[in-house]
Amino acid sequence: MKLFFQSILWSCLIFEVYFTQQYLSESVTAQETLHNQVTSVNQLTDVQHTDWAFQALQAFVDRYGCIVGYPNQTFQGNRLITRYEFAVGLNACVDRLNQLQASTAPDLIKKQDLQTLQRLQKEFAPELSILRGQVDSLEARTDQFDSQQFSTTTKFTGEAVFVVSGAFGDDKAVPSGETTGFRGKVGNNIIFSDRVRLIFNTSFTGQDLLRIRFQAGNIPNFREATGTNMARLSFDSNTDNQLILNQLYYQFPIGSAVKVTAIAQGTLFDVVDTINPLLGSDGRGSISAFGIRSPIYREETGGTGIGISYNFNSAINLAMVYLASEAYNPTARSGLFDGSYSALAQLTFQPTKALSLGLTYARSLNSIDISTSSTITNDPFNGVSNNIVGNSYSLAASWLINPALRLGGWVGYLQASAQDIPNDPSAEIFYYAVNFGFSDLGKEGNLLGFVFGQPPKVSSNEFGVVDRNTSLHFEALYRFQVNDNVSITPGMIAIINPDHNSNNDTIFVGTIRTTFQF
Q1: By C-alpha distance, which of 335, 264, 336, 345 is closest to 302?
Q2: Is 332 exposed, middle or buried (0-12, 13-18, 19+ CB in 10 A)?
Q3: Which of 120, 254, 282, 383 has a C-alpha 20 to 30 A away from that of 24?
Q4: Does 2 score more than 70 pLDDT?
Q5: pLDDT-based confidence at 68, cuts 50/70/90?
Q6: Hey, is 454 helix, strand or coil?
Q7: 203-226 in b/e burial notation, b at 16+ Cβ within 10 A?
Q8: pLDDT tens for residues 70-86?
Q9: If you ran DSSP here, which 8-state letter would residue 506 be given?
Q10: Residues 6+ apart with CB under 8 A from 255
Q11: Rounded to whole angstroms, how far apart are CA atoms 255 and 261?
Q12: What residues pair up with 161 in beta bridges, in sequence order?
């Protein structure tokens, strides 16, 4: 009889624990699980007719009609259980027998079986009381969550960045040809600023995504303090802490290989992988605008358009994006197709999980002011041309050498042509960067990262204006992961020969970025 009731309790335990856990986590899944439960011992794939418990299990099912086994048609009879698990099974048996007593067939219950269950119920009374309290608490919390959740289709997340930063040096940087010191001194001040993002991700089908992001901040562009865009921080955003809509797009699949993104307000890298998994987050990655991604993705930093991503297979992806900066403007030389734009295509290869390569081409109109380069590079035709066509090419790579070390970077070339100047003069612009980092250094989630490179530089120009020297960008940062939601990242940027002018003094930018994610 003892073995018989062990089999009974174990059978009920399997169903009770599995069903309760599934119900508390996801009611729909629980309902499907109920319908898929095994109802006959003969259906259990790991129970044989020669097993010692077979007759006991079979008798219990025939007599009391209890559900046994896991949904995958196994019994797992050799699994060890705790007293709490045993108590759960006992409670299930008592409930089942109470149902039978209240039904039209109380005679099915043997008096000896009922006495044994009553004795076990008394012995395990403390465990049963604790478990009932836990289940009641979980159900109350589940009801509270259902009533207080923001939306059944929308997930709300956010990020707050607090920054202590400052720029240091002597004279502000000037372009080649200007007198050093003409623009004054570097603003050697320590400042405190912030940026907040509120993100609403909505899915109507489970496969689509409507993203709405609001942003407010007062983190300045350090160009004002240093004289050059090369000193920009990756997370700068100055709206005087007024909330603005800075990202709005809807993404949906067509079949299993194609994903379309309709962009009302967004960027090229909302669709395209920037091949910088180590430092590509402006809230947790590189502290510089130059170090966060290749300049080719900045040829249109915000606009309206459409993107398409196609997976040839698990290793090869083709992404294409078109953005217009003034799609909302009906006046001449504006709109969706008659104003400034950027059209980008990228072929991404991932031959292994550790290696990613990206080949990128972009064609743009009046969009080469990428805001991380020199004054001359941003406008190589000195304000004379209003019709600058750019053709850009870039190769990016990222290699996870081992779980703790990743190496990456990019190299790029941009040909800019002034279409409204006689002879259509063109300028050639070149840039590169190398980054590497050590993940989980000192603690899981920590990161020690470095960036070295040359910001975009006009190396030749038929219009006659070139960058005479070469700037070098050095960057170091260490992200300390306080917990799952908070990280602190001190970092330093050094720009040698800023604005590609060796007459300029080295400029330093230091920052301590604290990021809260919720």
Answers
A1: 264
A2: exposed
A3: 120
A4: no
A5: low
A6: strand
A7: eeeeeebbbbbbbbbbbbbbbebb
A8: 667 777 777 776 766 67
A9: P
A10: none
A11: 14
A12: 195, 515
Tokens 């570097």 belong to 186
**What integer is the mean pLDDT of 270-287?**
96
Tokens of 278: 């180590």
Q: Own/partner pairs for 250-256, CB < 8 Å, 24+ apart?
A: 250/208, 250/209, 250/210, 250/211, 251/208, 251/209, 251/210, 251/211, 252/205, 252/207, 252/208, 252/209, 253/207, 253/208
| Residue pLDDT, tens place only, 102-149 | 775 556 666 776 677 677 777 777 877 787 777 778 877 777 766 666
Residue pair 433/291 in contact (Cβ under 8 Å)? The answer is: yes
Question: What is the rounded CA–CA span in Å between residue 156 and residue 58?
Answer: 51
Lowest mean pLDDT among 180-184, 298-302, 318-322, 508-512: 298-302
What phi and psi values does residue 423 have, to the nearest 5 degrees?
A: 70, 5
Alpha-carbon distance of 255 to 517, in angstroms, equals 33
Long-range contacts at 73-80 (CB < 8 A, ≥ 24 apart):
73/38, 73/43, 73/44, 73/45, 74/44, 74/45, 74/46, 75/11, 75/14, 75/44, 75/46, 75/47, 76/14, 76/46, 77/10, 77/46, 77/47, 77/51, 77/53
Cβ distance 295 to 230 under 8 Å?
A: no
Closest CA to 251 of 205, 287, 189: 205
| Kind and range of the H or E run holding 24 | helix 2-25
Burial category of 445 from C-beta neighbours within 10 Å (exposed 0-12, middle 13-18, buried 19 and up)? middle
What residues contact 358, with CB distance under 8 A and at least 6 apart? 273, 274, 275, 346, 347, 348, 349, 394, 395, 396, 397
- Helix, coil or strand: residue 175: coil
Average pLDDT, the chain: 86
CA distance 253 to 256: 7
- Spell 354-390 as b/e; 16+ CB within 10 A means b: eebebebebbbbbbbebbbbbbbbbbbbeeebeebbb
Estimate to the nearest angstrom the gap between the alpha carbon of 498 and the chain centroid. Answer: 33
Average pLDDT of the segment spanning 15-21: 40
Are 218 and 161 within 8 A, CB to CB?
Answer: no
How many other C-beta atoms are found inside a 10 Å radius of the C-beta of residue 55?
Answer: 14
Tokens, residue 371: 């805001």
Nearest to 73 by CA among 33, 34, 46: 46
